[in-house]
Amino acid sequence: MLAPQTKPRRDLFPSIAVACLLFCLRTSTVWAQSDVPRFDLGGQFTFVRYNSVVSPMSQQAGFGTTFSWNAKPCFSLDASLNYFPYHKGSFTVIDTYQGGSLLQAFFGVKAGLRKQRFGLFGRARPGLVSFSKTVTITSRMPLTIATNRLTEPAADFGLTAEYYAARHIALRYDLGDTAFFYRRRVHPIPGSPNEILPAVTSNNFQLSVAVVLRF
What we know:
Blueprint: H1 13-25, E1 39-50, E2 58-72, E3 75-84, E4 102-114, E5 118-140, E6 143-166, E7 169-182, E8 185-187, E9 195-197, E10 200-214
Antiparallel strand pairs: 1-2, 1-10, 2-3, 3-4, 4-5, 5-6, 6-7, 7-10, 8-9
């Protein structure tokens, strides 16, 4: 199998998100707690540009849901669940790091500034990503490839912009870096020495747009 060809790139999104979180902790607000709905629940369309470790870069669209508990006007616990279905032209390059459909789950914090019509937040959420079909065993004589699900730690860092069209309806835009943290593992090759796959991080641009119900 091919070894990773690129080093993890460094993005500004984690730094920006952390800066927004720290700024929120130092900023007071004059809003009354009752002015902000306690819960946000939305359906979203999401797009990811996957910076593959060993294969060409791929792009894929999916859908999911987002949920927030607004503990304070400037601070929320935030979660999302996204699914990128497998089809021809998606993650069709199946290797030891990707393949099949992709499932994402994140849970963390969202903090920033909220006004009457608009909100701008930093977002930091650890989670998991799971590919449904990656190469797990390779045999060369005869040529045989076995596939299985691969689940790895991940993190989502970025910015969230919200437009409050009405008290109970909002539009949400998420922009950021989704990092996949591939752990070191052994790739069995029957009849040959096993291949050691090193730990590597893949940074991926992701954009989501959601319609949110606030209650």
